[in-house]
Design goal:
By secondary structure, this protein is an alpha+beta fold. The chain is 25% helix and 27% strand. It has 4 domains: 4-66, no CATH class; 71-145, GMP Synthetase, Chain A, domain 3; 161-210, no CATH class; 224-261. A 6-stranded mixed β-sheet has the order 5-2-1-4-3-6, with no helix packed on it. Strands 10-11-12-13 form a 4-stranded antiparallel β-sheet, with no helix packed on it. Helix 1 (68-94) packs across helix 2 (126-136). The longest helix has 27 residues, at 68-94.
């Protein structure tokens, strides 16, 4: 029985599962397989996948391990995709379309040329597609993406000095709200809590579950509570020392342990 493998076609991209089709596939081997877009070269990120982890009805065999010939075609496609970007930008300007081109991507067999772009509004690119199809003599697909997806594709360096999470290991985007920053008592300055894409930092979510669990039944910041017969307002909490800080109306400050609120 063929073993199952996990494959990605782009860095930190969607994981696809395949059977090995009789091939001896190892970790990090390049394979030729069918993605959602067409025949592409992907990288094996896991071997011997447990069959209980996947839907076997959606498992298909890889086409083959990447050959030297495939590698040469793949390299040529990457180079030609860069050239296609320049042509497409010129045509976008000619058609006066309000769109920003992000990336071009050839399928391995060149059956399709895919362009990713961003735009503030919906764009009618039908005439552009006809022009591009006549130039490249293949099927053209234009896909509008959001700014988070743009930076996932382009990559970059975050304010922490490391490569962007979305471009290195985040395979999907989950919702991030201002609530997470407030729970972590971060200074609400857009320039400090926004990523390269201008959206709230994805890493704000990393510790959100810990904060939510630790702050269960704990008064919110600004909430009124009572200490030693005096009413005060919660001005701070610390999940590491497990204390909240309460300031009374006559400016007295008390440190109250979390356990008092968890009886």
């Amino acid at each position: 029985m063929d073993k199952l493998i996990a494959v990605v076609f782009q860095s930190a991209g969607k994981i696809y599962y395949f059977s090995t089709n009789g091939e001896n596939v190892e970790f990090k081997d390049r394979v030729v397989a069918q993605s959602d877009f067409g025949i592409e070269v992907g990288t094996t990120v896991k071997v011997n996948v447990d069959r209980k982890e996947v839907d076997l009805n959606n498992i298909f065999p890889i086409v083959r391990l990447m050959t030297n010939e495939d590698l040469e075609i793949y390299k040529k496609n990457l180079k030609d995709a860069d050239s296609a970007m320049n042509v497409c930008r010129k045509k976008i300007k000619e058609h006066d379309l309000q769109m920003k081109l992000v990336k071009a991507r050839y399928m391995l067999d060149r059956s399709k040329l895919l362009f990713y772009f961003t735009a503030e509004e919906r764009v009618d690119f039908r005439a552009l597609v006809k022009d591009l199809a006549s130039i490249f003599r293949t099927r053209i697909e234009l896909r509008q993406i959001g700014v988070r997806d743009e930076f996932k594709i382009k990559g970059g360096i975050g304010m922490c000095g490391r490569e962007l999470c979305c471009a290195t290991h985040l395979r999907t985007f989950e919702g991030v709200t201002l609530k997470y920053a407030k729970q972590q008592q971060l200074y609400i300055n857009p320039s400090k809590i926004s990523g390269a894409c201008g959206k709230l930092l994805c890493c704000l979510r990393y510790e959100a579950d810990v904060y939510q669990e630790e702050l269960k039944n704990i008064p919110d910041l600004g909430e009124e509570t009572e200490i030693e017969g005096k009413k005060g307002v919660v001005t701070q909490y610390n999940i590491f020392t497990k204390e909240i800080t309460v300031q009374t109306r006559d400016s007295e400050v008390f440190k109250i342990p979390f356990r008092r609120f968890r009886r």
